[in-house]
Amino acid sequence: MIRNRDALETDDSHRVALDCIEAAIAAAAPETATESAVALDGETLTVGPTSYDLGEYDEVVIVGGGKAGGGVTRALETILGDRLSGGRLVVKQPVDVSAVEWSVGDHPLPSERNVQATAELLELVDEADDDTLVLFVLTGGASALLSAPTGDLTIDDLQATTDRLLGGGVPIEEINAVRKHLSELKGGQLARRAAPATVVGLLVSDVVGDDFSTIGSGPSVPDETTYADALAVFDRHGVSPPEAVREHLEAGRDGQVAETPFPDDPVFDRVQNHLVGDNGTALDAAADVARAADHDPLVLTSRLRGEAREVAKPLVAVAEEATVTGSPVEPPAVLLAGGETTVTITGDGGQGGPNQELVLSGALDHDGDAIVAAVDTDGEDGSSDVAGAIADADAIADRERAREALLANDAGSYLSEIGATIETGPTGTNVNDVVVIVVPA
């Protein structure tokens, strides 16, 4: 899975770290997760704890998108067989599915081809009636891939808004509060368009805490945020939206544009959402691998968040405490954490992403011999083409150069120079980031 593993596996501690990362990504594979959550027995389709009688529906269609959308759909095609009528996906990479049509879109910024593909998906949703079962596949990356600008907004408005919010280090749940109010399908509006069809959401979470309304900006989930909340995001973080976006949000705040549907809206009477996979699944698999390697695993959290370079410091501090005192875990040990850190771009915007910044910051700050590794489970850290990085304090020979790179948001360049980046290519899944810290005996 890790293409440059031979170069990275320099000792037993590096081997354990890389094994944990591979296990975490494999456990989050969308096919595996879907097959564990969905089953068909005769005409009874079971999704999690809920059963659906397929005999009550004339059509069963799949719609949705995201980086892991192809894997979820492949599993559903295998399970449903000829009971599946068809469908439409918007994905980042070509996918191997047969009954469902798909289009490739762009990420992390929405594009015109995303808008066109989403329009075709919404045509299928609009055709659904009370004899239709809509299986709505939603995974990480869908917020950008499923793009349908509302009102007079353009794709340029969406791109500029997303770019400014990401560059401002705004947390994903706040970014999505804005996206919901600039869209024709986010924030429960897909459920509104599909009514009176039965909608079954199959969600693979890429957000901290697995809040259904935040995953993919919640197209099938009630929205409790408002236009006023969306405007407050820009003010709180000192980010200026495009003028057309501000005008649209102000019009909504003033009651001139309808709000997204709230939890008591009847459009959700025939909607149920199910979590298929999340970050905890990945961390549990990594812990199993650590245990098999005679390392005591400790999962610190699956809700990691904050500025990547700052989040790294308390994590390596726990590793130092373990080395000196044997608390909170006795070495040899593996500390595990997952979540979604952010980067506020203050430099010229060099190479890298949150996971590379976390690793470089951790290696610089660490007073010990622990191995720090971090990856984005989708295989692409930020806007870079590597999954993350792995390093220890000894790997950072030129500390002044490393600090300069970190301050310039150019961690990727330095880590690439010292051969510390982890390369997987697109993995076909996305359940946030995984951090692995190996504390040797």
TrEMBL record:
GO cellular component assignments: cytoplasm
SUPFAM superfamilies with a match to the protein in the record: GckA/TtuD-like (SSF82544)
Protein name: DUF4147 domain-containing protein
Organism: Haloarcula salina
Domain MOFRL, residue spans: 334-433
Gene3D superfamilies: Glycerate kinase, MOFRL-like N-terminal domain, MOFRL domain
Domain of life: Archaea
MOFRL-associated domain location: 17-250
Gene Ontology molecular-function annotations: glycerate kinase activity
One of the Pfam families matching this protein, by short name: DUF4147
